[in-house]
């Protein structure tokens, strides 16, 4: 298995891309919650 570590960067980028795709739909809700919490905090 040690001689096949050249596939690691692809797996890491694929994992990060997968997480980014999952987070994209939550961005508007996250920004809204940040604005609401900042509004209540007085910022």
From TrEMBL:
Keywords: Membrane, Transmembrane, Transmembrane helix. The chain crosses the membrane at residues 12-34. It comes from the Bacteria. This is Membrane protein. It comes from Vibrio galatheae.
């Amino acid at each position: 298995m040690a001689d096949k570590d050249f596939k690691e960067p692809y797996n890491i980028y694929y994992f990060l891309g997968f997480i980014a795709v999952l987070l994209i739909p939550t961005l508007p809700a996250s920004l809204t919650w940040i604005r609401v919490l900042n509004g209540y905090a007085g910022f």
